[in-house]
Design a protein that fits this description.
An 8-stranded mixed beta sheet has the order 2-1-3-4-6-5-7-8, covered by helices on one side. Strands 9, 10, 11, 12, 13, 14 and 25 form a 7-stranded mixed beta sheet that branches. Mean pLDDT is 93; it is low at 541-550. It has 3 domains: 2-212, Glutaredoxin, CATH 3.40.30.80; 228-340 and 466-549, FAD/NAD(P)-binding domain (3-Layer(bba) Sandwich); 357-463, FAD/NAD(P)-binding domain, CATH 3.50.50.60. By secondary structure, it is α/β, with parallel strands linked by helices. A hairpin with a 6-residue loop joins strand 12 and strand 13.
């Protein structure tokens, strides 16, 4: 039976978490053409048959591209999956596999219930759209950020089915579409054929682009209600922030986690983790999901929320945070905002970002499987891990490093040798060239001074990180010479009382175990300080008076 393609434990989760929420019957139509993407045709057919066997509310039907029904539905690609096509214009062009399995299940729920996952303010704005909006989100099955962007598009189509259509386009199965639009990175969103955003957008940003058919630079926000008071606000949903939430709430602090994108930070896009205690080998996304599930048992996790303003009141000592959703007044603050990728400075790097230049092999590597030529720039753990991951996908990989030795762990270097990946030592990328997409790179051999051109399909840069420190700067925290937040490593206290930092944003060794340890220390320091402040207030000594007395 088709159901057997899904493991028993996964079937239980699907039934108990998703399919039980189905209210009305939902039609799912699968279109395939023999000889075109046969492997994915089979996977799409098997998946939909399995869903139909798991729930009698999923009404599956199967068709051939080119038959009367496909012409009626304007289906020309194999495979294509339509969800409730008589009511909504929602489709996958390609099989909804891997990470997109999550978006498919939520899409089923929305189509069955007629309820959008968007917030009320967003739905109100979308409700005012009168002209057509054809939304395309390019995705890959290995991208952890794609499902949420897809669901925003699908949710908009549920709100306004008369004028909004939404497609999730799998880049590997539809390479011609991707190359024609210059979309070699995921997620990328196009509305009416116009590029409107790269990466997972906050909901407000997506809605703004839907209204204007432009890439927004600043999203409009709507904040209503009274300020929300908390004991502790944790900004950042990576291992450090999630761990801080677990420890803080267990200690009795009323806490929340604010995360602007997906949970997990850099770990979520790490293909394999082999050095975290308790797991010999585990996918980064799988590890993050386990940590997030535990954290969610204790604290509210606000995904898609980001801080726009931060300040500390000199009189009451409390911290005021304005986000795109609310205003928070908190006794303590943990900054666990992590790092951003350091940008490749070579000419053409910005021009071809998302069109062959990438900073996420996990997200974008799938497009380059089956023998495409790529280079990976860098020499640390991330660069070598990315090179190995791309090689395992089937890409032809060359590592380009500006030194004559690698900084990566010895085990990773040995794996690199065993994989037979070529390394260009003492070499730097001088220029990236192409047309709509990357076609070649010019690489300088620093030893000889010669510059050679290499034909490539993709450039993956892993050349280090820069701290995500905007909020720290707003608060006036002390930073080191590279912009990392200075902390007392025994307590994770910063230069400002009641403000703590944890994880990669503090610099030093960027390891999951370190981030987890720092998150727990930050939470316990916050508990100690908040408890001490509370005791002093009960005794009639305010934080301000205590500071003056000290």
């Amino acid at each position: 039976m088709a159901e057997e393609m899904i493991p028993d434990d996964v079937k239980k989760v699907i039934r108990d978490t998703f399919l039980k929420e189905l209210k009305n019957d939902v039609a799912v139509e699968v279109y395939t053409k023999k000889g075109v993407n046969d492997q994915f045709n089979e996977a799409a057919t098997g998946l939909i048959k399995a869903m139909a066997e798991l729930s009698d509310k999923v009404k599956a039907s199967f068709h051939t591209v080119g038959d009367e029904q496909s012409v009626k539905r304007n289906v020309a690609r194999s495979p294509t999956v339509l969800i409730a096509p008589d009511k909504y214009r929602i489709r996958y062009i390609g099989a909804p596999l891997g990470e997109e399995g999550r978006s498919f299940l939520v899409a089923l729920m929305m189509a069955s219930t007629g309820k959008s996952i968007l917030t009320a303010p967003s739905m109100e704005k979308i409700g005012g759209i009168r002209e057509k909006r054809d939304v395309q989100v390019f995705v890959s099955p290995t991208c952890p950020y794609c499902p949420q962007q897809v669901l925003q598009a699908f949710a908009a189509a549920v709100v306004k089915p008369d004028v909004i259509s939404a497609e999730a386009v799998e880049i590997y199965e539809n390479q011609d579409l991707a190359e024609n639009l210059g979309s070699l990175a995921v997620p990328q969103t196009f509305i009416n054929g116009t590029f409107t955003g790269a990466g997972l957008q906050p909901e407000e940003w997506f809605v703004e682009s839907l209204l204007t058919i432009k890439e927004p630079t600043v999203a409009s926000t709507r904040i209503s209600g009274e300020p929300v008071e908390k004991d502790l606000v944790i900004v950042g949903g990576g291992p450090a922030g999630l761990t801080a939430a677990i420890y803080a709430v267990r200690a009795g602090l009323n806490s929340i986690v604010i995360e602007k994108s997906n949970l997990g930070g850099q770990v979520a896009i790490t293909p394999v983790v082999e050095n975290y205690p308790g797991f010999m080998r585990i996918g980064g996304k799988s590890l993050v999901d386990l940590i997030a599930q535990q954290a969610a048992q204790y604290a509210d996790l606000h995904i898609g929320e980001y801080v726009t303003e931060a300040a500390k009141d000199k009189h009451d000592g409390k911290i005021y945070l304005k986000t795109n959703h609310a205003i928070y007044i908190t006794k303590g603050l943990v900054i666990a905002t992590g790092v951003d990728n350091r940008v490749l400075e070579a000419p053409g790097a910005n021009k071809f970002y998302g069109r062959g230049v990438s900073y996420c092999a996990t997200c974008d590597g799938y497009f380059f499987k089956d023998g495409k030529k790529v280079i990976v720039v860098g020499g640390g753990n991330t660069a070598v891990t990315d090179a190995l991951y791309l090689r395992n996908l089937g890409a032809q990989v060359t590592l380009v490093h500006w030194r004559d030795t690698l900084k990566a762990e010895a085990r990773l270097q040995e794996s690199l040798k065993q994989a037979g990946i070529t390394v260009l030592w003492n070499s730097e990328v001088r220029e990236i060239t192409g047309d709509k997409i990357v076609r070649a790179v010019r690489i300088e051999d620093k030893s000889s001074g010669t510059v050679n051109e290499m034909a490539v399909d993709g450039v993956f840069a892993a050349i280090g990180y820069i701290p995500s420190n905007d909020m720290a700067k707003q608060l006036g925290l002390e930073l080191d010479g590279e912009g990392y937040i200075k902390v007392d490593l025994t307590t994770m206290r910063t230069s400002m009382p009641m403000v703590y930092a944890a994880g990669d944003v503090t610099g030093g060794l960027k390891q999951i175990a370190v981030a987890v340890g720092q998150g727990s220390m930050a939470a316990m320091s916050a508990f100690e300080d908040i408890s001490s402040t509370y005791r002093k207030e009960k005794e009639g000594v305010t934080p301000l008076k205590a500071a003056k007395a000290g």
